[in-house]
Amino acid sequence: MDIKTYQQIYEELNYPEHIHEISLEFSLYSSTVSNIFHQKIVRNVRKNHSRMVHKAPALVRSWKKGATIMDIAHKHDFPPVLTASIILKEMGLKSKSIIKNPDLLHNKRLKNELNQAIETDFCFSPKAHILQGNHGKLGEELIHNWLKGDGLDFLTESDLNKEPNTKTPDFLLHEPMRINGNKVRWIESKAVFADEKEHNRYQKKQFQFYEDLYGPGMVVYWYGFLDTITPGNYLITDYTFFENISSDLDRLLNHR
Length: 256
Description:
Elements: H1 3-12, H2 18-25, H3 30-54, H4 56-64, H5 69-76, H6 80-90, H7 95-100, H8 108-120, H9 126-149, E1 154-156, H10 157-160, E2 171-179, E3 182-190, H11 196-214, E4 217-221, E5 234-237, H12 249-253
Parallel strand pairs: 3-4, 4-5
Antiparallel strand pairs: 1-2, 2-3
Helix pairs in contact: 2-3, 5-6
């Protein structure tokens, strides 16, 4: 994706309701637009989380005066579940356990508002976390089946975790394969859209170690990437590489 298109999408994406219309406007899979929106929310949380925690006493006072959790979340442009978590902690309650099981709450108003927050939250509800995990697993499954179908021998990340190396790719081939004339020894699956920030984060945390340990590889950003990204000693590709290879690709691309 070119940088101008990405910036326009990023600017226009402010609510989940925008995902469908923007995907139509730019002829993109809704999953790609959804992922960009998810990243925008997460970055806003990283920027403002400490500020919200500092305001916790004031948030609880607002709630006791009648403002709902959703009211407070909208006012501060902060995810509903994280807003609820801050309020619950300030009340001296175990937020993680309660968000997983709101029925632990005896306060009927608080339970109803928490359920609404969980139902509404795009990124941080238990359901959203499960979906994100499922997309990651499905991406790895598609690569696993592709490698098996080509009769290639490889180790998975779980196999490699038995070894002393702490930085391990999703797949390590016993023998390098050739892709578009490039040698590939390892493959990493990422069920994300990668802009410069996202890619640089992974480069520092993972990819540079894979290069040092195993040599050239391939990164799959399933939902696309900016064409301004400069890879290291590895290929970068997306779902288009697998369009004529996997019949299961639709399961990964066509979600909310």
